[in-house]
Fold this protein.
Amino acid sequence: MNWTDSGGRDLADFAFSYAPAKIILGGEHAVVYGETALALAIDQGIRLGVTRSAQLDGPVLRSVGWSILGEVRPGPNGAGPKVLREALAKLVELMGSGVRELLFTVDTHLPFGCGLGSSAALSVALIRSIHRFWQLDLPPAKEQGLAFELERIFHGNPSGVDHTVISSGGMICYRKTHESSFIERVNPKQQLKFAVGLAGAHVGTSRAVTLLKERVRRHPDVYGGIFSSIGHVAREMKHCVEQEKLAGLGELMDVNQGFLNALGLSTPKIEALCSIARERGALGAKLTGAGCGGAVIALVDSDPQMIVDAFMAAGYSAFAVASENIL
Ligand code: PMV
């Protein structure tokens, strides 16, 4: 049976996908050096529609949420931000020339490039939409492998924590060595709520990682000690989550933020947002993701709106998010 929409168009010509955004509760950057990170999918993300047009010399990516995106197309008649054009070209390489006939429409309110995993969510959503459109099987390992190839276009040599938690959903402990990655599912007993404040665009994940690498090269033992402490903090955070010790979790977020500051990843705006949140009763606050700008997350045990309002009153963009999966 053929399903059609109200315009009589064959619905087999459309497919939709969704991928959540993420936050890293603890362990960002240290995870690049083999330590544990604790990350969770959140209740906001990217919706993607895909359709086919034989006239396209695509693939083409359009956005109804990201004004910076415009219309993106790779190839000689290319348009749009370079990194997105390269990601679309990679998609053709990974999935075949049929992708050239596809038109993708992104719908999201997520800020782009702020440490909330927008590029990994886009990568996962693109892979999911193509597989749905062509009705292909997509086992989790295959989804993660393909999404990682796209993430490498955005982030150079990512640890893999972003696309892994976005693909798996829920909350995970993630660790990667040279040989393999280790994923442990974490089961929070309650939904975690956060106020998010934006401390401006960050310098870009690969740039932040590269700059830190230069500092590490100068004083490997000093930074190595900080990384292993951060890994310890992330593992302690997992226990707090599992035992519903929210105050303990918040305290560890503050400790983690202190280490991130010591690594040179904080900024005056990030510190100001953390202070505002703590003064207004947040259980803890820290940057999330690459740092040097981007998002600050503040953990709350009540309505996050009061802290969101305080962030906005101080001139920052802000919004509330919560963990995605409740058991
Ligand atoms: O891309 P972001 O801002 O979500 O940061 C990713 C986390 C890092 O640990 C800084 C980098 C990585 O590859 O894990």
Residues 28-29, 31-32, 115, 117, 155, 158-159, 161-162, 205, 209, 289-290 surround PMV (CB under 6 Å). Residues 220-242 form the longest helix (23 residues). The longest strand covers residues 37-52.
